[in-house]
Amino acid sequence: MFFRTNQFQYNARPEKPDPVYANKLQEVLGGQWGEISVMMTYLFQGWNCRAPAKYRDMILDIGTEEIAHVEMLATMIARLLESSPVEAREEAAKNSVIGAVMGGARVEDVIVAGMDPQHAIVSGGGATPNDSVGFPWTARYTVASGNLLADFRFNVTAETQGRLQVTRLYEMTDDPGVRDMLSFLIARDTMHQNQWLAAIRELEEDGLDATPAPMSFPQEKEKSEVAYQFWNCSEGTESAEGRWAKGPTPDGKGQFQYLADPKPLGETVTELPPADPRLHGTPKKAMPPMSS
To answer: Cis omega (within 30 of 0) on the bond before 274?
Structure first.
């Protein structure tokens, strides 16, 4: 059960409307690495969690926090859209940078190119669950595997990509209100990266999983002779200089081996056997003419 209050987790008010920037901000709302993605990912990880209660509670804490981030971003986008298309067009006409980029193009064309028409046509001046090019958010961005080590490693990636995009958006505006909200989200991403790294370490210290994950699969069933080989599969041998090419492996169970010229290990295949003729694929031999 969730309860909402009218007081936001943090401020979400721009100094002035900017419908072009509102479109850009859609990426960190409804994009692959946006707040809707991490909100849904963490909530499903928490709801599906069968590990000790401290993990479930922690995951649902951050999942619930992300709902507030979605609300903040959606509200910020709506407030950035408070000016009318006519006002936005006039403002763009005054902007010497846009004028230079236009190179003779009509102001209307530039505005249409920079704004999301769905903000006017579909949502009536509000945010949409889409990314910055209008692609709808999809549940395929949600990752909840039931293996916490696998999920927590993904979560580090999600928070890193999210923080990267928000920092880029921070550099794309000089609006103090927008920057204030983004600086808060950037700081929370800093916390969440550290949180998931700490959770990974705790999982390992608790003996619940380890590298290589999942720990529950017996390593003796692996093709052990290739388990710690680095294969040089592209031109150049600079990769041999890296930590991944020599010395003990991070899991403490082997030594890295660098293969400068790896050889194929499988069978030689020139062609596959014919498919079932009822599938009507291309046959191996010419077919007799079909009777009319």
So the answer is: no
Q: What predicted TM-score, i.e. pTM, was given to this entire model?
A: 0.87
pLDDT at 289: 80
Query: What separation, in Å, do the N-terminal and C-terminal C-alpha atoms of the chain show?
Result: 68
Distance separating alpha carbons of residues 142 and 133, to the nearest angstrom: 20
Residue 214: cis peptide before it, omega within 30 degrees of 0: yes
Q: Could you report the per-residue pLDDT of 66-108, keeping only the tens digit for each? A: 999 999 999 999 999 997 555 655 665 555 444 443 344 444 4
User: Distance of alpha carbon 156 from its chain centroid, rounded?
Assistant: 10
Q: Which two tokens stand for residue 78?
A: 């709506």
Beta strand segments in 178-256, E: 229-231
Helix (H, G, I), strand (E, B) or coil at 131: coil
Measured CA to CA, the distance from residue 130 to residue 191 in angstroms comes to 26
